[in-house]
Amino acid sequence: ILLSLDSFPLTVNGKLDRHSLPDPDFDILQGEDYVGPTTELEIKLSQIYSEILGLANDRVGTDHNFFRIGGNSILSIQLRNKLVQLDEFKHISMTDLFKYDTINKLIRSLQYDNQTVYKLQNTVIQTNTHEVAVIGVSGAFSGADNIMKLWQLISNQEQGIRFYSKDECRDLKVEEALLSDPNYIPVAGLVKDIELFDPFFWGMSPNEAKQLDPQIRKFLEHCWFVLESSGYIHQRRDYNIGVFAGSGNSNYFYNHVLQGKMRSQINIWDVSVSNSKDALATKAAFFLGLSGPAHSINTACSTGLVSVV
Question: Using CA atoms, how far apart are residues 167 and 132, in angstroms rounded to an integer?
Fold first, then answer.
């Protein structure tokens, strides 16, 4: 809600006097779209919203966006602490609060009638062998958005890399000396849709996502996809699911973050740790809410294979 003021109230020191600011008029939200709580659960959630936001109970409707009526990242933490005390939301995550930002959406998230029913294996088989069952696979590649397209690419004997003309290279600011080198081959592998990463889905700020290597963003997305395709996405917090992952050093950090326009405004330590290959597994486990082991694997070219076995 935006409230127009002729001037801001100031303290004797010339700073903003927050206590003298007028309260926003939330009555404008109670127009034709206002829907009051009716069920027992809706009333409980409305009371929690009201308590966290400091509003009267009749000011919070079931379709009111928590962040539009005064909520913020700090208050969302308090909201989660209240919600986990209810049996219906004992497993709710911070990410869920950004996704289900109204009372109505929170309640609808509990209704799994239209969701696929998976038959999950709950038995534990003890064996002395080292056999591994692969029950879900996901990935993004140059020229192929997923595993099926990659297989089609291979079976049709096609290639996913792209060759660039000299004019395209000049547009990309490739040096003339390099273009004239007979050993220089202008070819690159490109993964699509790296700019479509949704930071709010993961509970991170857009600025934090911008500083994160696109390969890590893609890794997080495909961790979600593989849990979803294997049937464990909704039950992931009920199982001891681990993450074993590996990656190379982040060129994005050195070439685009440290050399970027915002380099003077970033915390080098935070950004370097965020892009560290050593934090890949723990980062994925944190954002997915997984409670199993999280180990980063680094064995050069065999990293992918070692991560599986």
Answer: 49
Residue 294: which H helix or E strand, with range?
strand 294-296
Q: Quote the CA–CA distance of 112 and 117 in Å, as a whole number.
A: 9
Contact 227, 236 (CB under 8 A): yes
Token pair, residue 2, equals 């935006």
- Write down the pTM of the prediction: 0.59
Annotate 17-37 with DSSP letters as a single string: -GGGSPPP-GGGGSSTT----
CA distance 178 to 201: 42
CB atoms within 10 A of CB 144: 19
pLDDT at 169: 92
Q: Residue 274: which H helix or E strand, with range? A: helix 268-274
CB-based contact 189:142 (threshold 8 Å): yes
* DSSP letter for each residue of 132-199: ---------BTTBSSHHHHHHHHHTT----EE--HHHHHHTT--HHHHT-TT---EE---TTGGG--T
Q: Pull the structure tokens for residue 220.
A: 């997080």
Residue 61: which of 79, 34, 42 has the closest Cα?
Answer: 34
* pLDDT number for residue 151: 92
The confidence score (pLDDT) of residue 116 equals: 54
CA dihedral angle for residue 242, residue 244, residue 248, residue 251, rounded to 10 degrees:
-10
The ranges of the chain with pLDDT < 70 are: 1-3, 22-34, 111-126, 262
Q: How many CB atoms lie within 10 A of CB 63?
A: 12
**Residue 59 confidence (pLDDT):** 79
